[in-house]
Amino acid sequence: MDARLPLTSAGICLALLLSGCSPSDEKRQVSLEEKTAQFEKSLDAIQDPKLKDAVSELGGSLLLLERAQLKLDSKPVETEYGEDTLAMLKHYPTPQALVDTYINGLFVLQKDSSSDYLTDLQPVFPFTFSVPAAFLFPHGLEWQSVTLSNKRVIPFQPEWSETDPGIQLSPSSSNLTNPDDLTVAYPFIEGLDIDRKQQPQPVSLQGKVEVIAPRRLYSFDLTKKDVGQTRTNDNLSVTLLTLTTNYAEIEYNNSAPLAPEVSETPLNPLIVQARDSTGQLISRAGSINETAVQIAFYQQQLAKMQQQKSWSEPLEKQLDEEQRNFEKQQARHYSKVYFNGTIETLEVSILDFSAATVTRKDLDLPIRRFDAETTDKSIQPLNLHVVVYDDQAATWLKGATLSEEQLKKNVSISQSVDDPSAARIEFTHLRSFNDELLGTSFNPGESPVSFFTEDTGGKRDEPIELPPEAYQIDPLRGTITYDLNLFPETPAYAVGSMPLFLATVEQKTIDTHQLPKGLELKDNVLVVDLKAYPAQDWRFFAKDDTGSYLKEILSVSHGASTQGPAQFAVHYFYGQPTRLETYQRTDLTTVQYGFEVKLDKADMTRLDQ
């Protein structure tokens, strides 16, 4: 029996569960903590293990849902912009074209490990997903084996075995950051040195992939005028129940039955995006996909289980039947979606799975080796014959025209007084394309800072006379470190100037049929002479005939020797460039950022005696 809430599709932002509540929600928080304690106590009283597991699963899901609701309701409305989840689909004429690009654009890189007994394999996907976004369509990828240079085939195993004496293929130990990476592990023999080059090398990776493409995607554009209205397109309908400052409540439905191909597949067909008054997309904070009626039903089921002394087959059948009947009555689906910002307009999109195309393919991918730096004079080909666009490039390149005021506006100041002998003030700003072109020739100039006491009204008072060793300024890292042991009085304010750096960038657009000397295009590969175009001063972006930026697959620097400077750089693109945009740093300016910081109070009892 599966009596738990479908929280996997609720889109709850788990990060929120780790943050604190606002004072206004303190009573709700206390009530929730009391409820949690009572529930845990009631669990301890259940003797039957099966009943205990079922009560724990459903009750825990209800508490998690309530906690998520509390966190979402109490989260301050602070604007945070996000990316267009649908951007990749908008580049392709049909959902199936996106599926084909996803499958055909996949390849595998071989990477060196820090150990001679390990070789890492990195599957490279054509699309980059940022949490919590993911590939739009239901999909699965299963690795099966790796073929070595000696023709031996090593089967995939879900985890590395310490007792297996042979060569193994298993998920990488760096799973947390690269969950798709794999490792070929060679047997370790105590006292015997192994030459990596003598080991049979991985040549190809075998697996299978399955992707389900919907019949179509349809989007409804909604505003506050649409509250209470039902919008329909053929078999798809959306009703906007509520639209407030930072959340929307939506009911949606597909009146056509699901395609047989997806009848047993968990689906989340709803995609909700919002824009604020600037027209920019604001990021999602999380969502709750259970109505009050659904939650009440699950609470009734939980209460019924808690009244039992033991788990039984009749009880399981009864609960299953009740749940099936209840779900049949839920003709429409519900979602309450929260955003990090003030909503002006909504874009509610539904994937229509009333018809579906299932693409299955056996994979036998050659394993490629592209080191970031190489002494090879020849250029390896890497044309995957798919077109993938870089939807973040246009936003990123706005940093090429960053002004002094924009740079200053993006500065944030943080403090740390955990260690009073090394208290810190840190100046940071949102990283932009401007930072990428700063180079290394910095001239920070003077970075004066003075510390002040405060008067009885909390205002800035007299400056504090300090020895030079009482504080240190690192202008390149934007930090001020000060030792309160050396302060004759407690400082309350820091006043001064911190340097920021601004590149002057010149941008040009060149037709790839008329490239200047030092630039050469070979199919999907741009070759750059680094003597004419030094890497720290130049960046290159490619577009095709659609006017969209092509995504770069990877780049390699070629040099005459491992110690010498790189001679030329090679940039590989998904697609055929027809226009090239060049960005050259022509100057570097120091911008002084004046500040007055009210200092956080340190725990003076922790000062050195």
Summarize the structure.
With 609 residues, this protein is of the alpha+beta class.
Secondary structure blueprint with pairings:
Blueprint: H1 26-44, H2 49-74, H3 87-90, H4 95-104, E1 107-112, E2 118-124, E3 139-148, E4 153-155, E5 168-171, E6 182-185, E7 202-222, E8 230-233, E9 236-243, E10 247-254, E11 270-275, E12 281-282, E13 284-288, H5 292-306, H6 313-329, E14 333-339, E15 345-368, E16 373-374, H7 393-396, H8 404-409, E17 411-416, E18 423-429, H9 433-436, E19 449-454, E20 460-463, E21 471-474, E22 479-482, E23 493-511, E24 519-522, E25 525-529, E26 538-543, E27 552-559, E28 566-573, E29 579-598
Parallel strand pairs: 1-15, 16-27
Antiparallel strand pairs: 1-2, 2-6, 3-4, 3-7, 5-6, 7-15, 8-9, 9-10, 10-14, 11-12, 11-15, 13-14, 17-18, 18-22, 19-20, 19-23, 21-22, 23-29, 24-25, 25-28, 26-29, 27-28
Helix pairs in contact: 1-2, 2-5
